Amino acid sequence: MLRGGMPGSAPIIVLSQNTKRESGHRVQLMNINAAKTIADVIRTSLGPRAMLKMLMDPMGGIVLTNDGNAILREITVKHPAAKSMIEIARTQDEETGDGTTSVIVLAGEIMAEAEQFLDQNIHPTIIIQAYRMALEDMIEWAEKKFSKPVDVKNETQLATVVKSCLATKMLANYMDLAVKIALDAVRTIDVTKHGYHEIDIKRYCRMEKIPGGSIEDSSVVKGVVLNKDIVHPKMRRRIEKPRVILLDCQLEYKKGESQTSIEIMKEEDFSRALEQEEATIRKQCDEIIALKPDLVFTEKGISDLAQHFLVKAGITALRRLKKTDNNRLARVTGARIAHDTTDLTEEDVGTLTDLFEIKKIGDEYFAFVTSEKTTAVTVVIRGPSKDIMNEVERNIQDAVNCVRNVLLNPRVVPGAGALEMALAHALNEKSKSIEGVRQWPYKAVARALEVIPRTLIQNCGGSTIRQLTALRAKHAQNADKNWTWGIDGVTGELNEVKDPDASKSWFSWAKTDMNTLNIWDPLAVRIQVLKTAIETSVMLLRIDDIVSGTKKKDANSEAVMPE
Amino acid sequence: MASAGETLLALGGKRTTGQSIRTQNAMAAMAIANVVKSSLGPLGLDKMMVDDVGDVTVTNDGATILKLLEVEHPAGKVLVDLAQLQDEEVGDGTTSVAIIAAELLKAANELVQQKLHPTTVINGYRFACKEAVRFIQENLALSTDDLDRTSIIKAAKTTMSSKLISTDSDFFAEMCVEATNLIKVTDASGKATFPIKAINVLKAHGKSSRESMLIRGYALNCTRASEAMPRKIAGAKIACLDFSLQKSKMHLGISVVVEDPSKLEAIRREEMEITKRRIEKILKAGANVILTTGGIDDLCLKQFVEAGALAVRRAKKVDLKRIAKATGATLTSSLATLEGDDEQFDPSLLGQADEVVQERISDEELVLIKGPKARTAASIILRGANDVMLDEMERSLHDALCVVRRVLESKKLVVGGGAVEAALNVYLDNFATTLPSREQLAVAEFANALLVIPKTLASNAAKDSTQLVAKLRAFHYKSQTEKENSHLKWAGLDLENGNIRDNKEAGILEPMISKVKCLKFATEAAITILRIDDLIKLDKVEKQQHDDECM
């Protein structure tokens, strides 16, 4: 609220009474605190010794996760700066699918580092310039110096990356399985057409959760799995090499769009009208039967009468599919979705499918449409409870995204805090050559980066100061050689991140050589973490005034001011 | 509570008159200006606005800040409108205009307290404003007809220097100039105009602001209607439709009554056939990209898929209008012909483009229309950490685009960093002494009020504003009195180092029109408020009754 006044008169009210305004140093401190608070919430979810969080929503449902984005999504915050922090986790998730916890922790730390400079009355714009400079340098170093190319054809190397991604997740106990699922799934949907490299996880890689069984029973199905049963019990439940027709229209009588009414004068007219409805369905079915399909899928309904005709023709039919499922089926079967039975042609029939089968799993029926050569995939997730399966789904999603990132940008960086430490060391060195006040905030970015190895040590109960100083020393001794040294997140010890021996398979290698870590993250993920964290803190640091209770953008309250 | 000028009216309202209202107005204006003051200049900071629902806006733009503030005081509202006006007219300088207007009011109030009649002050202000504008145009403008690209980029950079994207201003300035040049339109009289609105700015979060990109073509935030459609069409022929390709139906309330049951089926068929025939006509005309504002029935998608055409449904009408302009297409709202007998789709209604392609950016898919035939088009895709940031980037970019447009249109620049204001101050101060009338005082105050800009710039940068401004004035005095030192008129503030430097060399440039309009608007607003000597505020409920009785 703004008040001005002159002595002896009433205060002049300029802004609406319910507007609250805070400005200056206080606001900056508040924003920093908000960022720190958010970072603290998920700090313990970083690294292989991460713990899950259980979140309860107002409806009583629970979410069980250690995925940064999933945690923050459920938290309701009031402070505007905290809201922006939460949003960056979402950005990170959408862009790369992984690294959501790191980005928040790092952004919180970068903000916290700025506090001391603000206390010293260094102008925020100076801090921001230094942060930006640091970001540019870091990206360059990460791309050129601290990363290595990965051979996307080499399963072992890819498995390493997926493993690093999953090590922090609940699925870590089922590593072999999860790695296999992620690799299989992405390999299947990886297509190049019209010179366009497409890995469309959203559309063509679906997760189907089937309660019951154990997590080990999860698998990748090359094709589509539908939670549907056949419409008529007499239909065939297992067809090899079926001919498939996909429909987007109903096989039942439906009135036209316009409002029509019929006035019946004669008795026979009534039965004629009924017959006509029957005839329409019969015609539709005949048109389908003429193409001799074994399988018919439709997005709409199938009336009893139509079912009857189809059963008689030995055709299996499934109804009420989702649009997205139908699109995937089109990819598996090679069929073209027809929207009207009248213009069905031979080309519309899909013949690529190897097997159609209805299986009863638990209490429900599932239709499996599979093909070896398909480019659509379904990951069947099994598990004891819904919440666990949800978490497994999130984990696999992360793993799948991780594979995609590597395939699209085949460079990896050492994980386990090694990249952060290497960058921190490089920033420290460079900072000495920077003139003016900017040197300090520039150096602060280096300190902020150390939060990642530090949190790793903290989360597994290691001796923070001893290990961190040892690691810092290691990087300082020989920056060119020791840039892969990081923290073993399980033991809290110092360790070197090394290449797996390409001649051995990853799993046997891991068992024989326990002394080195083998954690490599996709470059795209780590760079995005740096970019998002710095850009957000830059935005928040620029703020020196918070006005709350302002009006909505469009609602302009009219002034009452007669002449 | 009641002061001398405040009397209770019989109507149940409140009346404030005379000096009391003038002081009130001046106070209110100062209060408004104080809100935006700290966001001025390259070292100004941002404001975070939280509305009652909790939505956050982070901004540095004066007009946006004031728009979001719930200002109640009538004089304050005039200032808010003023900033809005500047935003619409020039697009930049919204903060300075509010600050100058408030300063002018404050000065005027003091003059009136010294028993100078408001009309004299008003006359003086008008006079000073006119003189100032003349001086800018004659002495301070860099009339560079052969405006090279670098100075346009510099002007764009100056605008962005105070914004969130200041560190990337090189990158964005290039982008703005490029985009503005792409949308250049030369009208019949040979005058080039730059409709900034034609630049489509899309926002997608993810990546960093550096990865924002300029697309030479039009980006449409839609996806193709069916997965089976081609992703890329070269040599596109584009049909822009403003109607749905859905099963046609009668309007509500019209009911078709038939007697023969077989007719019922015929009606049903016909509903589908009408649309099918329409699509056939469109496809026959050679269209391979169909954009419509309405829906497309799944039923009809097959026709497009079979023809290998790309159809997009539910595109925004504004987008389609622009696409139509760029590609030379005609936005068709119906297929009916003038003859009225049959529906037609003429091939001349089609627009052309080199390529139409759907691309994935972040998590979203966009349809890009590249290389439109009739006119070049530009779209900018902004990337950034989160939505709040993207919104602010868009506002900053809009300001920069406006500035580039103004420079390209008027081809005149002035030097920024407080140089113009200081020069005007010195000039008007001298000019005032030549006036024998009472206006002399008002003109002198006007001159002083202008100094608020360099003062605020310096104090935002945490520099000694008094000393810096004194130094700056000394430079300008020299330039105006001594011929050989006339180059000193480009002297402005160097806020990084707290020095005076040649801002022409440093590349701190602003479009002249922005400064001139800023002065004019601020003076007008100050005068409007200054003329008020009576404020009657009626109670809301009372007013309603009063109205009823009267009318």
UniProtKB/TrEMBL annotation, chain A:
Spans traversing the lipid bilayer: none
Signal peptide: none
Superkingdom per UniProt: Eukaryota
A GO MF label: ATP hydrolysis activity
CDD domains, A to Z: TCP1_gamma
Pfam families hit by this protein: Cpn60_TCP1
Keyword terms of this UniProt record: ATP-binding, Chaperone, Cytoplasm, Nucleotide-binding
Keyword Cytoplasm set for record: yes
SUPFAM superfamilies (UniProt xref): GroEL apical domain-like, GroEL equatorial domain-like, GroEL-intermediate domain like
Subcellular locations according to the entry: Cytoplasm
A GO cellular-component term linked to this record: chaperonin-containing T-complex
Family: Belongs to the TCP-1 chaperonin family.
Protein name: T-complex protein 1 subunit gamma
Source species of the chain: Acrobeloides nanus
TrEMBL record, chain B:
Record bears the keyword Membrane: no
Subcellular locations according to the entry: Cytoplasm
InterPro entries in UniProt: Chap_CCT_alpha, Chaperone_TCP-1, Chaperonin_TCP-1_CS, Cpn60/GroEL/TCP-1, GroEL-like_apical_dom_sf, GROEL-like_equatorial_sf, TCP-1-like_intermed_sf, TCP-1_chaperonin
Reactions mediated catalytically: ATP + H2O = ADP + phosphate + H(+)
Pfam families, sorted: Cpn60_TCP1
Single GO MF descriptor: ATP hydrolysis activity
Keyword Cytoplasm: yes
GO CC terms in record: cytoplasm
Entry-linked Gene3D superfamilies: GroEL, GroEL-like equatorial domain, TCP-1-like chaperonin intermediate domain
Keyword terms: ATP-binding, Chaperone, Cytoplasm, Nucleotide-binding
Family to which this protein belongs: Belongs to the TCP-1 chaperonin family.
Protein name: T-complex protein 1 subunit alpha
Native organism: Acrobeloides nanus
